[in-house]
Amino acid sequence: MRTYIIEDEFHCNICGRYASFEDALNELRRWAKLPWGDGDHVAPCQSWRTCHADYIVYAEDDSVPQEALPKAVYVLTLSARGAEWQPPYDKTLNEAQ
Ligand SMILES: [Zn+2]
Q1: Which pLDDT score is estimated for 44?
Q2: What domain range includes position 22?
Q3: Which residues pair with 61 in a beta bridge?
Q4: Tens digit of each residue's pLDDT (9 = 90 or more) over 24-68
Q5: Are 37 and 54 in contact (CB under 8 A)?
Q6: CA of 6 to the centre of ligand 1 (A)
């Protein structure tokens, strides 16, 4: 079964697993509206207030070789300064589904 992982690549922190790329994007859209530090998306380090998170989404699927899966997509950076979306974040994994 294919699942979609949100990882904070900056901290190598896996933040959640979702049934579809769209589900993962919706979760990131939700996090992007929350104040930094509010909710479950905060950076895991002691200096999180001045730190940031670089969220990528990638697929995992036991039934196909890793190299056959679409590349990870850099979607969003969150920090106290707000959300910085990284277009065309909504393209690659969608097209590969
Ligand atoms: Zn940090």
Answers
A1: 86
A2: 2-96
A3: 2
A4: 999 999 999 999 988 767 788 999 999 999 999 999 999 998 888
A5: no
A6: 16
Chain centre to alpha carbon of residue 65: 22
The residue behind tokens 């589900």 is: 23
Radius of gyration of the chain from its Cα atoms, rounded to whole angstroms? 13
- Average pLDDT of the chain? 90
Distance 62 CA to ligand 1 centre (A): 31
Residue 96 has pLDDT above 90, yes or no: no
Number of domains in the chain: 1
pLDDT, residue 94, reads 62
Largest CA distance in the chain: 40
Contact 58, 7 (CB under 8 A): yes
Written as six digits, the tokens of 2 are: 């294919």
Cβ-contact 29, 83 below 8 angstroms: no
- The CA 44 to ligand 1 mean position distance, Å, reads 6
